[in-house]
Amino acid sequence: MQLLFSRRTFGVLIALFMTAEVSAQDIDPQLILASKDIDYERLKQHVFVMASDSLEGRMTGAAGQKKAAHYIANNFEASGLLPAFHETGAPSPFFQRFSLVSGRLSAAELRIGDKTLQYSQDFCMVTLALPPAHLEAVVQDNNEPLESAFTQQDNPTTMVLRPSEAVLNAYTAADYFQEVLSKAMRSGSKLVLIVPSSEALFQRLSAKNTLGRKFDKIWADTCAIVLISPQKSTQILFKGASANFKTKTQISKHYQTENVGAWLPGQDTTQTVVITAHYDHLGKHKNGKIYYGADDNGSGVAGLLEMAHNFGKCYKNGQRWHKNILFLAVSAEEIGLIGSAYYTDYAPRFPLKETMLNINTDMIGREDPASPRDMRYVSTVGSDWLSSELHAALIGINAALTKLRLDLTYNDVQHPEQFFFRSDQYNFAKYMIPVIFFTSPDHPDYHKLTDTPDKIDISRVQAVTQLMFGLVWHISLKENALKIDQKKY
Questions:
Q1: pLDDT tens digit string along 70-82?
Q2: Which residues, at least 6 apart from 372, have a Cβ–Cβ distance to it below 8 Å?
Q3: What pLDDT does 249 receive?
Q4: Is residue 387 part of a domain?
Q5: Which of 62, 274, 278, 422 is 20 to 30 A from 437, comparing alpha carbons?
């Protein structure tokens, strides 16, 4: 999971299974039997492999990450799943490759009309266009909501957005900018100017986006997003004004990484459920020691692989589901949710409009030290943010299979940790796809060299995997899409 704060506060645990809304009669008896085959020893093996010395912390683009990708692909194949991508020239038909670039922003120049703006004082960049851009465009000031602000552009228009304080407060800033970037690139816009609601907010964001800062980006990003001082904007921004924008970057590294995907076809191949877990981590410390990432996210990958094994076995034995099921291990999460963004923004294997659900798992192997020892639980986020039907299914499946206590502490829209926006489920949710994020509060070893496999509670991973397995099975059996009846973000 991406780092926001160093610790999370353990909240009230809600025993939701006591108020289940999906009755036992609604649950497939075969699901009850199949869930019992989620295997402790296989989960343990996967955790210890993912957090082994040979994978060297699985840093995006490094040799250890490549080894992890092959390990995941080999397990998908052994489970009888179909390769998801079949890319020409790829080492495996399970790989979805994409290119990244690392470097530093060394200079940026923005001129609107006859006014040349000063970096930091008048404007700052929050995303780069690559390759480095020289854009000439026309300003189109737009007060529409983000959902309707962008239309297909025949020319490289400069779009101006003026999000309210409430809108910006509903996101982490990085996630708002990522959503703007996704919509802008799809519309053909090359430059987006965002005017924050106050000068204080501009100054705060500008301080984080200085010249010389390091970046890791998808090489295919073709739109730049720039923040403009509200004070300056009143003097320069008007419809029809010319905009001239240049950047210079120092590129230190081009490299490639890959998502790893496999699937099982449903009886209706126009509907898909996607299960995700990121498999990258932090690599090595400068002293040469390994960030093992056993919980983050060896535990989630273990759950993904075990679900793939059991679904594959059931499929081989004749079981069928109405919806496709896609198993997707994503890379580059630790450097900005990039692997899942590549899948949703650039190259979805199945159309996003036909993607019914995303289940994401990240850090499910440890208990919070402050939690009571007799309470087995999992933190869930997002189940009721779009669909009350999904939330009811979570409660009912939990009651039937695992009877875990569901911790909703981080499901609060106003919670300062903002878990909803901090792992890969967000890149599905921004397209109005219902999601559930399965995780747990931080522990003292989070993003430390001491996140080692011997500390993982495999029985906890087993229980959470059973719950996720059951929920995917239940939703995938249904003919209808989940009803979207609310939006909390």
A1: 999 999 999 999 9
A2: none
A3: 87
A4: yes
A5: 62
Statement: residue 226 has pLDDT above 60: yes
Closest CA to 123 of 242, 236, 290, 277: 236
Question: Are 359 and 317 in a shared domain?
Answer: yes
Per residue in 437-483, pLDDT tens?
999 877 899 999 999 999 999 999 999 999 999 999 999 999 999 99
User: What are the Cα distances from residue 229, in Å, to 110, 125, 143, 236, 322?
Assistant: 13, 12, 17, 11, 51
Q: Which amino acid is at 192?
A: V
466 is a domain residue: yes
Residue 31 belongs to what H/E stretch? Answer: helix 29-35
CATH number at residue 181: 3.50.30
Distance of CA 69 to CAs 108, 190, 329, 338, Å? 37, 34, 8, 16
pLDDT over 70, % of the chain: 87
Look at residue 75 in the predicted model and tell me its pLDDT: 98
Burial of 413 (0-12, 13-18, 19+ CB in 10 A): exposed
Helix (H/G/I), strand (E/B), else coil: 253: strand
In a shared domain, residues 218 and 259: no
The answer for residues whose C-beta is within 8 angstroms of residue 137's C-beta and 6 or more apart is 155, 156, 157, 158, 190, 191, 242, 243, 245
